[in-house]
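Per reviewer request, we include the raw input and output of the structure prediction for the construct analysed in the revised manuscript.
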Amino acid sequence: MPLDQIGQTLASFYDDLIAEGVPPHLAALVRRVRQGQVDPAAEGGQADRFPAGSRPGNLAIVVEDEEDVRHLAEALLEETQLEVIGCASAEEALDVLQKRGGDVALIFADVRLAGQMDGLQLVRAVATLWPRTRLVVTSGQGVRTPDLPRDAVFIAKPWRAVDVLVEADLATKHPAPPVS
């Protein structure tokens, strides 16, 4: 999926904000997330999927199309301080991010995913829209460093539990500084 289509997908529900050095559709999404204008109960009826009362920066999203691997990563991360949501596609993860972006401390994403976007496109979008989120990319195939956002981490498959737990710990104890 070309980058401009990703932007259009992210901006499909935003129409009219002006950006300062950022494409209008990305600036609109950032403003809406910062203003807390996204209500899980009102959008798609998935409020039960997003428990109330969670504190900011305590959510991990596992994005993996192989169900067994996704469940393994979810179970591992559930042993940390993080609340965990699993997604089979980047589009599903973006839906969660649109609702809970400010709560997301960690994205753990495979490169190959179900849907039109791959994991690299997802982490690039997240790096732009939610720059405080720790990004971990995984794959059974190598990934070139230039393909990753600057602060993203690559963990090769089969990954070791300790490597994933270290990244979860870093996401909760050493979050990126606020963006001004």
